[in-house]
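Team,

Forwarding the record for the chain on the shared tracking sheet. I've put the sequence and predicted structure together so nobody has to dig through attachments.
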Amino acid sequence: MSMAMFGCNDNTKTDAQATTPNVETQSSTENNKTVIKVAYLPITHALPVLEEADLINNDPNSNVKVELIRYGSWPELLDALNTGNVDAASVLVELAIKAKEQGIDLKALALGHTDGNVLVVDNEIQDASQLKGKTIAIPHRQSSHYLLVIEALARANLTIDDVNIVEIAPTEMPSALASKQISAYCVAEPFGAKSVSLNIGKVLFTSQELWPHSICCALVFNNLFLKNHPELAKEFIRKYHESAHALENKEHALEVASKKFKQDKATLEQSLAWISFDNLQITEENYQKLSERIINAKLSDKVPEYKDFVVND
């Protein structure tokens, strides 16, 4: 198996100026409110965080202010999270688990979404057996997208060694498929829906077909912030679940997504049709299933215990 990196040249873009990286996040205040710096990528999987920021920042009675910091790639976001440059992030859960395993004191408080991933393939591919020898893109090896590709290949008695896996920035995947640089990809939305809406590719499998109730993105916090500001964290996560519940109204979700992302309506509608924001609690059962897949894929030797990584209060 070979690993290649196509040009991930999307520079970090921030809704607020990023600070110099440091070991511990230094809490700041604005108008007597504690500022919570939250990192995210511009994907529909992060929609609850974006909706919540508006909900909190427009609430005069809130004790916190959310400062969203937007990144162009997972490595950039993870570096900000690991160095304490942000307090929290909507991030691929496998990346957070790996960081926790390596000694970064992170805690997962909720899912970013449920379901909502698809394996998009070239229109000429009819079944999984035709993926043999093909190039398949994922956003990062430490991702549920990688695990979903493994499952899809297994349906045709294939393994990762039978294909060429490459890592590409999510924004580049539709164009890479259109230009035949890759034959398939699995990535966070709305970039799967983008190819489908433009008829560049089609869905071979949905995540529900491959791995029901799969865990993909999670809301994680620097544990230092949780220790120093437990009541503010509770307020934040309460508003987060309120925001996620509101997004179950697809018309409302489309309205929010249209304001936050530069994507056409057809792409966003398709993307949101696949995603659910209902019940974002991280259950021990689903976490255990994720842990088993991570270990079987040799992405980790020892996944952190549920009680050590997940805060479900």
